[in-house]
Amino acid sequence: MASQIHLVVNELRRRIVAGELAPGTRLVELALAAQLGVSRTPIRLAFEELEKQGLLERLSTRGFRVRELTVDDISDAIDVRGVLEGMAVRLAAERPLAAETLAQLQRCVAEGQALIRDAAHNQDTVDLARWIPMNARFHACLMAAAANKALVSALTHVDKLPLASASALSLGGAAPALELAFLQRAQQDHEDIVDALQAHEGARAEALMREHARRSRDNKRELLTGSRLHRLA
């Protein structure tokens, strides 16, 4: 079931960013289930995940429709996320880092390293079914370490904007070689941020996280425009 949901999420995300599903399009579970050869359950769960990523919006009557998506909106949202997450890692670095928190971050770093290595044997394609939840856990762990409820609330709001959340790091394998290069850089950022946290270097951790978000913003812009989505700019 989990693999089916991942495949449906990736396919629907691809159709949305490619313009095959236009803004305002109402999505019909039964029709999509038939097209993709799955039951309605993974379709329904994929809708909920894409709503979290800001690509769909829930209708008051029932069901979901495609949200309006522009490159500038995505960029603005990621810039705000960078500021919030930068503040979070600075706060985390300025207080003692719990052993379990550090262990969780190190597990994410180790998994990321393994996924990057494995990509070399898989036509430069990173296993996004594992990378995306790992990346989301890494960012969530950092936010939890900040221990600031107002910050978490603000970031939760930003994460609902199109392609702004950490779980929407990739565009679903649209350009494998390009995405691999971006994820290799993201992996290095993760390692540097953990190093800064261990050294209690708040200013450095904040600068690294804001730069991490800036790269995510620029990478998404390049992936989108590289997919001939100039109409979104």
Which helices and strands appear, and what pairs or packs with what?
Layout: H1 2-17, E1 26-27, H2 29-36, H3 40-52, E2 56-58, E3 64-66, H4 71-93, H5 99-119, H6 128-146, H7 149-158, H8 176-198, H9 202-226
Antiparallel strand pairs: 1-3, 2-3
Helix pairs in contact: 1-3, 2-3, 4-6, 4-7, 4-8, 4-9, 5-6, 5-8, 8-9
Can you characterise this structure?
The structure is a single chain. With 233 residues, the protein is mostly helical. The chain is 68% helix and 3% strand. Strands 1-3-2 form a three-stranded antiparallel β-sheet. It starts with a helix and ends in a 7-residue tail after the last helix.
Please name the defining characteristics of this protein.
three-stranded antiparallel β-sheet, disordered C terminus, mainly alpha, Arc Repressor Mutant, subunit A, 9 helices, 233 residues, 3 strands, Four Helix Bundle (Hemerythrin (Met), subunit A)
What gross morphology would you assign?
globular
Give the full name of the CATH homologous superfamily of the largest domain: GntR ligand-binding domain-like
Number of strands: 3
Architecture (CATH level 2) name of the largest domain = Up-down Bundle
User: What about the largest sheet?
Assistant: 3 strands, antiparallel
Measured as a percent range, the helix fraction is 55-70%
CATH class membership of the largest domain = Mainly Alpha
